[in-house]
From TrEMBL:
Recorded GO MF terms: magnesium ion binding; phosphoacetylglucosamine mutase activity
Pathway the protein takes part in: Nucleotide-sugar biosynthesis; UDP-N-acetyl-alpha-D-glucosamine biosynthesis; N-acetyl-alpha-D-glucosamine 1-phosphate from alpha-D-glucosamine 6-phosphate (route I): step 2/2
Family matches, as Pfam families: AMG1_II (PF21405), AMG1_III (PF21404), PGM_PMM_I (PF02878), PGM_PMM_IV (PF00408)
Protein name, as recorded: Phosphoacetylglucosamine mutase
EC class: isomerase
Catalytic residues, chain numbering: S64 (phosphoserine intermediate)
Catalysed conversion reaction: N-acetyl-alpha-D-glucosamine 1-phosphate = N-acetyl-D-glucosamine 6-phosphate
Organism of this sequence: Sinocyclocheilus grahami (Dianchi golden-line fish)
Span of domain Phosphoacetylglucosamine mutase AMG1: 206-283, 297-382
Coiled coil: none
Amino acid sequence: MDLTWIKSYSKLHPKPEGLALQYGTAGFRTHAKHLDHIMFRMGLLATLRSKKTKSTIGVMVTASHNPEEDNGVKLIDPMGEMVTAVWEGYATQLANAEQDSLLKELKDVIEKEDIDMSEPASIYIGKDTRPSGASLSRAVLDGVSSLGGKTHDYGLVTTPQLHYMVCCCNTHGCYGSPTVEGYYQKLSQAFLQLSQNASNCTDDQKRLLVDGANGIGALKMTEMEPFLCSKLHMVLSNDSSSGKLNHMCGADYVKVQQNAPQGMNMGVGERCCSFDGDADRIVYYYTDSKGCFHLLDGDKIATLISTYLKELLTQAGLNLQIAVVQTAYANGSSTRYLEDVMKVAVCCTKTGVKHLHHAAQEYDIGVYFEANGHGTVSSLKRAVRLLESTINLINQTVGDAISDMLVIEAVLAIRGMSVQDWDAIYTDLPNRQLKVTVSDRRVIDTTDAERRAVTPEGLQDAIDSLVKKYKTARSFVRPSGTEDVVRVYAEADTQENADRLAHEVSLAVH
Ligand code: NG1
Ligand code: ZN
């Protein structure tokens, strides 16, 4: 097969010699200036994946919670899922091929996967609001068209919206219609239907303050609001015209700093939420009358949703197995509550929703959330009428801040719960997350769903003896898959002790 023309196309998107990047927790991510060749090559790879699966493949240009200067790219498989580990390997292989060997590596993938190059290819593309997004998504388009693939560029969309489009297209409309209007219609109809079960919501109860992280989420909420027929009154802040993406705002900032975002005018007790940069994460919070900040993170969201679903199953007399999937970052209190009080199965996987998603699919109903607010519900196998609207409201392909927000709002309204009632389900153990910069974060290798370090030698022993000094304490370290840092997490009986333990463990990492 003659593909020599790829050589001249790829010269328009040259790879800086020696630069090596990995397909990480959520695709490639680094400073936008290093990504042009990666985008072109992911266009090539997506085209091969489309030919191989005889389906539409998605390419999302985003760096989610990372700083505005960064960007990234992730591939979306036919049912809206993340690509498989083998194809992640191909992605890294193509990304790191020097200019002269790109064609050889491309042919290697074609051969290994036995791809029929005469098959047509179809690629859906989307991007978040980063300034670098326009030229980087053009590089993806170049990659696709150089292999003769067809593209549909959705422009500015949230990551979950693109997952939804890909799933709609490959299920020939069964999941919904592959347009942003189709997405708004599907979610809002389910929300309105579900909300009918909530009695007499006051205007105060309908009010929700939303921090859009100065990103795509804010833009899309504005588009969606008319579809919600005044059943939810959103007050937007950090809505992209006013400031820098993710800077002092957004879900990651709020979760890690355990503090309110800047630019939000919060009244005492008011229900607030923050999206991240591509609107696949959401966290809730409020401040009490003493000015104390209360965070309701992914663990609390998983608890709220799984409790509600369990109740519906009982009411419907359905004997379905429900489980909650978490990661090492899940607050110890949430795990204890789910297992001991709620009596649901809890399982722990590695960081990154792709791992949680697969584990959740082992159960009849799998509720999965990372502590940072990224998650959804999957595997809803035998739905009954009562569950139908809840199911329709959930984007089953991937964690989706907008859909999660609507589910939470509906469940709170139906159960007549305030954000404070929800918060009181269990009390979080005080915790702290820190980032440590080291010369090579890859020297840390982990096991047991990333809760224990295998290398470097002695590190885990050092952590174990530090943890022993504190009550109800837990700590672990792992290399980040999206930033060039090592992440340290610690929990203990008091905030002071959690901070101290995190600090001591950071010193052990150096
Ligand atoms: P890394 O950088 O690998 O820790 C972060 C989040 C993940 C996931 C990805 C993708 C934490 C501790 N880690 O991964 O949970 O959401 O980004 O966005 O929040
Ligand atoms: Zn995200």
